């Protein structure tokens, strides 16, 4: 379909199957385009499962001839312009919603999720978990949720041991990814003088992973691995199946159109930029962390400043330094917002729970003779992960493009957005060099429409994007100077 209209799609098949407890097909029914009004498929970087919705226009009394009770398998196969082979989507029904009856015709929506999402709701984990977060996540997916899908992941720097306490598998994973630190990042602490001349303990580093499902499989990677677009690929993860798309181009008056219409930008709207109030309250710029180690009786305070760790992170834009907020102290003691922590976090450290020894085994103490591999590393991920997640919200937007069902959440996309100049000046500077560039795809919605379209239809892809810095490869960014 490469020579067709960029929005053109075609339904190869749509089959609904009833399954028994062992997954064997009991009954199935094929649905044609005369009953399908639309089909949406959604992925989110912050969601452990994919979802979808199938809008049915029913004049054949389908709900009574093939009763929908929940758990039915829905297999949809779509033709598109990016590959000769159709793309397949396999989901399960969890809800029938929005049912409207008008005479002999009714319209309703089959709400869909991946089968693992349904299993997760009723399965509680009781067994103790031990090892690297990567191995624990794989074990939960394979043994507890029974998935046979592809799993792409990277290991964390620290090992953990935990008792789940009857939590669901996805809830456990949500806890683990916030505690995970990439093996490619640097971490540590050092003493520096603060704005008053007194010495303070500063901690550096980056942390935080995402766990999400796409049509390709399950993924668990660090924020830095997802954001690494540099030539050195310092933070790259070998198993990361994240594709780069584009450039997608916003057409400009009096300039030749894009040769391939599939890469035209239909619309792009900014949803958020420069929210310093939220950033300050979340401790994006600077956070004081207070710790008490009840095993050793040690009390400590450390300060985390993202400005000091910015160079040890991967970035999507071209900023050389993080944008900071100018200080407002009347005595001019503050050079920027990072000089005075806006948030205080506290935690009780527990590095000795899993160790039956009389001597100190906390490797962070420094003189431990036999350091444990299951130490409490809270000080190296608590503020770091919060700041790293929040940094990604530096610039956000919603992009609409011709249907491309191969794009997944976690992929990267290169945009060329036109400058906000007059038509005459646009010939000299056609693109907005600060807003153009590489974005990380936070959410994806593929929409396939068949209303009044016959056997073929049209579609579009809506992407929610975000990134941690301004700028592109067109010219250096002026932000952060």
Short description:
The chain has 481 residues and is mostly beta strands.
Could you say which structural class the secondary elements and strand pairing correspond to?
Answer: mainly beta
Amount of helix: 10-25%
What is Rg?
26 Å
Number of helices: 9
Strand order of the largest sheet: 1-5-6-7-4-3-24-25
Silhouette: flat
Q: Largest sheet, if any?
A: 8 strands, antiparallel, barrel
Strand residue content: 35-45%
| Uncertain residue ranges | 329-334
Average predicted local confidence, pLDDT? 88
Topology, number of strands? 25
Distance N terminus to C terminus?
Answer: 47 Å
Describe what you observe in this structure.
There is one protein chain. The protein has 481 residues and is mainly beta. Helix content is 14%, strand content 37%. The protein has nine helices and 25 strands. It has helices spanning 62-65, 115-122, 133-144, 169-179, 223-227, 276-282, 306-309, 382-391, 423-426; strands spanning 8-19, 25-30, 36-44, 51-58, 73-79, 87-102, 105-113, 124-125, 129-131, 151-153, 160-162, 167-168, 188-193, 199-204, 209-214, 217-222, 244-249, 267-273, 286-293, 298-305, 343-349, 395-402, 412-416, 437-449, 456-467. The strands form five sheets. Strands 1-5-6-7-4-3-24-25 form an eight-stranded antiparallel barrel. A hairpin with a 2-residue loop joins β15 and β16 (217-222). α3 packs antiparallel against α4. The longest helix is centred in the first third of the chain and has 12 residues, at 133-144. The two termini are 47 Å apart. 40% of the residues are buried.
